[in-house]
Amino acid sequence: MSPEWLLADGTPIADAMVLSHPEQLERLRAACPQAAHTAVLAGDPCFDRMLAARQHRDRFRRALGLRRGQRLLLLNSTWNQESLFGNGGAEDLLPSLLPRLTGELPADEYRLAAVLHPNIWHGHGPGQIRAWLDRARRGGLALLDPLEGWRQALIAADAVIGDHGSVTYYAAALGTPVLLGAAPLNGLDPRSPVAEFVRTAPRLDPQAPLRRQIETLIDRHRPLPGPAELTTSVPGKSAPLLRETFYRLIGIPEPSDPALLAPLPLPPYDPPLRTAPLRVLTRLLGKGEVTVRRFAEPVHEPVHEPAQEPAHDRAHEPDAARVEGHLAVHEEGLDPEVTALADVIFRYGEADDRRLGPPECWGAEVLARWPNCALAAYITEPDVCTVRTRTGAVVRLTASPSGADPAAYASALHAALAGGTVLKDLVADGMTVRTGHVTHRVTITPVDCPLGTCSD
Questions:
Q1: Residues 174, 138: contact at Cβ < 8 Å?
Q2: CB 3.0-4.6 Å disulfide test: which of 238, 359, 360, 452 passes with 378?
Q3: Residue whose C-alpha is closest to residue 383's, from 448, 440, 449, 326
Q4: Cβ neighbours of 260 (radius 10 Å)
Q5: Residue 392 · residue 367 · CB < 8 Å
Q6: Where is 240: in which H helix or E strand?
Q7: Residue 326 pairs with which residues in a beta bridge?
Q8: Within 13 Å of residue 335, how many CA atoms lie on the same side as its CB?
């Protein structure tokens, strides 16, 4: 709001300067009184669209492929050298933070998405941005369009890691827990609500374990009053106020129809596709009951946290000896040498994809190609996968459509069979799979695969 931005030869550049809250008008009068008469209090149409769309939060979450019990962590960066993304180099926080997040947060408990300012895309180019973030994207990160879809993701988010940019401030205004990964005060009016937010919001410690910080943030969250109160003084009313201003400046009568903002559209379905190797930790809790925690290409061996399991499941058996690990890899993973080591190989596709053949035949082909693989899983629906074991057994796993990724059920089945559970008992009784705090019942059905149908 300084004169060098608002005046030309001592005269206001704009005929009307739209403000969203009276506190901005007070700061304008103090910083540039020559432009104060151009101020129009007309709210914030961007924020109004988000407020109106909050009723569709569950739909926006489903559009990003979130499943029951999952949390959406949104990362956001504005553009300058002090932002979360910085220059995009190796020393900047966001590019180094993303692979840690995909490696430290269990894949079936968290979904990651990133919103980068349009000028970051423009300055570096889409190809460079995608190259910098390739590892995180293979780990399941959704890299969102900087112009469309970010508002819906912000509404859907359970927590945000951001900086001093407007998207992070909008998140706080919506009541979403926020951690500041970058918090520069340079360039901010010290009297502004954004500066106050940057001074008081909790900070991310990049040297500390990330999951603990995020869960503490969510569990202890108390919304800051400032962002919600100071983003707009006229929530839901920006459309009529802006239109009245526009027609007054044009000098023609305003239409009699109501002034309305376009509702936020439902984004395309964008479920996670994890092609990075998955380190899977499992624990057998009893007959046909397995906990599963999958981590995308972790830098260090993940820690299994038995505290998540009910006490009665742990009371009579020791602990660490029963935690097992295996490697699960998407068939289209980047490194064939890693695929050669995989215990479980999986992929997603249509059941009638003629390029791959029927799911049970695809499984036979995979097991023949990769002799170390014990189990191949073809996921055909959000709740269904067809599994073929090294012994030649073919079964179909089915659960709730809102449950976990069926690839997690395939890993649970592998763990159960490796632990000595008999497949026919699982067919008879089903299987219980725990991911985080959520329990999933999985039905296991034999698939008839006549001899000669597939070449083993």
A1: no
A2: 359
A3: 440
A4: 10
A5: no
A6: helix 238-250
A7: 280
A8: 11
Is the entire prediction scored with pTM above 0.85? yes
> 105, 210 in Cβ contact below 8 A?
yes
Let me know if 269 is exposed, middle or buried by CB neighbors in 10 A (0-12, 13-18, 19+): exposed
DSSP readout, 122-138? HHH-HHHHHHHTHHHHH
DSSP 236: T
Q: Which two tokens stand for residue 268?
A: 């395309």
- Residues 413 and 444: their CA atoms lie apart, in Å, by 10
Structure tokens at 251: 């000098």
Rg (CA), the chain: 26
pLDDT digits (tens, 9 = 90+) for 231-259: 999 999 999 999 999 999 999 999 999 99
Task: Show the tokens assigned to 412.
Answer: 């649970």
**Cβ atoms within 10 Å, residue 26:** 13
Is residue 192 packed enough to be buried (19+ CB in 10 Å), middle (13-18) or exposed (0-12)? Answer: middle
The helix (run of H) or strand (run of E) holding residue 112 is strand 110-116
- Is the distance from CB of 266 to CB of 56 less than 8 angstroms? yes
Q: Are 381 and 361 in contact (CB under 8 A)?
A: no
| pLDDT tens, position by position, 299-348 | 888 876 654 454 444 444 444 448 999 999 999 999 999 999 999 999 99
441: CB partners within 8 A, 6+ apart: 399, 400, 430, 431, 432
The answer to whether 339 touches 376, Cβ cutoff 8 Å, is: no
Q: Which two tokens stand for residue 359?
A: 């799911």
